[in-house]
Structures are given as structure tokens and as C-alpha cells.
Write a structure and sequence with these properties.
This protein is α+β, with helices and mostly antiparallel strands and 336 residues long. It is 38% helix and 12% strand. It has a four-stranded mixed β-sheet with strand order 3-8-7-4. Strands 1-2 form a two-stranded antiparallel sheet. Strands 5-6 form a two-stranded antiparallel sheet. A hairpin with a 7-residue loop joins strand 7 and strand 8. Helix 5 runs parallel beside helix 10.
């Protein structure tokens, strides 16, 4: 499965035509979810089809929808970042903006409780607003969704620290214009409906993470409500920030892996996990102080079996540090 290719256009076309024949109409993303043996998310991951509109433009003769460049960029953002349905907060906010043209923190809290029974969600709502305002990406150089590339959904000059000083949030003029285009609106509604279905059937849980489901590093930082995104290269195997510590482990290391990062991370039992910090760290290192003097730090473990699995990791659960010791390894004739 890990070596099989599921990103061929011929496969997409075959699955699409089968579903269109079955339904007698141009399928929506939700139609794939409810009627097909194929995930449309595979289509959206293809470099040529970063939203469903682009796929239909290439493959469907009967499709006549048109989008402006900024509308297209907006749909690409939703398709890449939200359609996976890892949490409902952003989706409910966007729906409130779509139907009411504004929202308040209390409105979103009530929706989350009434629909999903979720309590104490202010921090996550704050994180969702930070994400949709694109401030989440502000410090990441090279990220394709800077504020000058895609315009905000929310009409506020919001920073993370002043979110709760604002009573209500209004729809941005750009998002309002996008929704006025019937083509954009149809794809927007379809994408959100798909994401709600995915959350309800796959990721729904009273906790931030659903046990044994898959998350990318970016997904994890978003759900932990980090103020700013950090690339996988900057995080590596772990990062302690905002009183959280996500740990990412590749369980079966590649044979040609450098000895300096060939960490001996392993399950001792179903409940105990042995984990190593980065190379050249001591028990006196400031970086490790929150783990060594553990006092409620939110430590979450994510594992992928090997590198063939791409950028996503299975969520294994919360960790509580029990004990530690200083280790030395002989690498290239030197003890490190």
C-alpha cells in the first residue's frame, strides 16, 4: 500500500466517470464520500488539482463554472487546509460568516456544544480565528498562503493577543464578493459539507485528537492552538512550546539514516514508551527542563511506521514523563 501510486489522473478519471454514470449528474465531493470507493482528497492532493473546480475544468466537458484568480486561491486554501475535517471550529465560523455575515465567540461556543457536546472551547475558537485570519502563518517564510496571497475571511486586523478583546467578527469584503459568485458558493458549500461529514465520521471526539487517526505536523500545531506555524524541518522530532510538546516518531528507521538521528525510540509495553531527545542534549539543557521537571505539560505522541507513509502520523495518545537518564552513544568514534 505504501508503495502504490494513487495520484494518477487516469485513476481519477475512471472513478469520476463511474460515479457520474451511477448518479446521472456531475458528482460533488460529498457524492464521492457517500457513494464511491474512492476518496476525492486524493484528487485535491494532486499538484494540478488543488481544488475540485480545477479538476472539473480539465475532465468534465459539461462543466461551465468560472472563478477569478483570488476566488480560486481562496478555494485552494479551503481544499488544502480544511477539507480533511480534523475539527469543526473553523467550519462553523465560516458557515456563520456565510449565512449571518458575522459571528461572536459565544455563538461558536453554543454551536459546538449544541451540535457536538464540546465544552470549554474558548482556546480552540481563539486558535481557529487565528488560523482563519492567517496570522497562524505570519512568521513562516516561504509558506504559500501569506496575507498578500490570500485575503482574510474575517474583516478585522486581528492578532492572536487581541482576539478576545473583540466582541464580534464580521465577514471581509473579499469573502463577501467570493460568495456572490454562484460557482464559488457551490464549491464552498460542498467543501464545507464534505469536511463536516469527515469530522463527524472520522475525527469526532471529545478530545483534541482522535486516537489512531492520522495528522500532519501542521494539523497537530493547529489543533494545539499554536500562535504560529513552524515547518517540519524546524520541529523535527519534537518541540516544546506554548506548554505543549508534540513528539513525532518514525518507528522503523531507514537503513541509511544518519547515526546522529537514529534514535532508539520504542514501545517497552503497550503503556510504556522509551524516547530519546535530540543529539547533544544534556539533562541540564534548558530545552528539556519542562519534561524533566514535569508539571502538566501537554505531551502528545504521534507515530508513523516508516517514511513511506508521507507527512502524516498516527495519534497514539498523551504521555506522562516517568523518569529520565543521561545517555551517551559512540558516533564516529566520539561519545555524544
Amino acid at each position: 500500500i505504501n508503495t502504490a501510486s494513487f495520484n494518477r489522473k487516469a485513476l481519477f478519471k475512471e472513478k469520476y466517470k463511474n460515479l457520474k454514470f451511477k448518479l446521472g449528474k456531475i458528482p460533488l465531493l460529498c457524492d464521492f464520500y457517500n457513494n464511491a470507493d474512492f476518496s476525492p482528497e486524493l484528487i485535491l492532493k494532486h499538484k494540478d488539482f488543488q481544488c475540485y473546480h480545477l479538476f472539473l475544468k480539465e475532465i468534465e466537458d459539461d462543466y461551465t463554472g468560472e472563478l477569478t484568480e483570488s476566488e480560486l486561491v481562496s478555494l485552494k486554501f479551503i481544499s488544502k487546509k480544511l477539507i480533511k475535517g480534523i475539527r469543526p471550529h473553523e467550519l462553523i465560523i465560516l458557515n456563520c460568516l456565510r449565512y449571518n455575515k458575522y459571528f461572536t465567540i459565544e455563538m461558536i461556543e453554543k454551536c459546538l456544544f449544541d451540535i457536538y457536546g464540546l465544552k470549554n472551547q474558548k482556546e480552540s475558537i481563539k486558535g481557529a480565528i487565528n488560523f482563519l485570519s492567517l496570522d497562524f502563518y505570519r512568521k513562516e517564510k516561504g509558506e504559500g498562503y501569506q496575507a498578500n496571497t490570500i485575503q482574510n475571511f474575517i474583516d478585522e486586523d486581528i492578532s492572536y493577543n487581541n482576539i478576545f478583546f473583540t466582541d464580534d467578527f464580521k465577514i471581509s469584503s473579499h469573502f463577501r464578493k467570493c460568495l456572490a459568485n454562484p460557482t464559488y458558493l457551490k464549491h464552498f458549500d460542498d467543501a464545507l459539507s464534505y469536511a463536516f461529514l469527515k469530522y463527524d465520521n472520522v475525527y469526532r471526539d471529545e478530545n483534541q485528537f482522535k486516537l489512531y487517526e492520522k495528522y500532519s505536523r501542521e494539523d497537530v500545531l493547529r489543533l494545539l492552538n499554536w500562535k504560529y506555524f513552524m515547518s517540519g524541518q524546524n520541529i523535527g522530532g519534537y518541540k516544546i512550546k506554548y506548554n505543549t510538546c508534540p513528539i513525532f516518531v518514525t518507528y522503523n528507521k531507514a537503513e541509511d539514516i544518519s547515526q546522529t538521528i537514529n534514535y532508539d525510540d520504542q514501545f517497552i509495553s503497550k503503556e510504556l514508551f522509551s524516547w530519546m531527545s535530540r543529539d547533544n542534549r544534556k539533562t541540564s539543557s534548558l530545552e528539556l527542563e519542562p519534561l524533566i521537571n514535569y508539571n502538566g505539560l501537554d505531551v502528545e505522541l504521534f507515530i508513523q511506521k516508516n517514511n513511506d507513509e508521507g507527512i502524516e502520523f498516527y495519534y497514539i495518545g498523551k504521555l506522562t514523563p516517568l523518569n529520565y537518564k543521561q545517555l551517551y552513544r559512540n558516533i564516529d568514534g566520539k561519545d555524544q
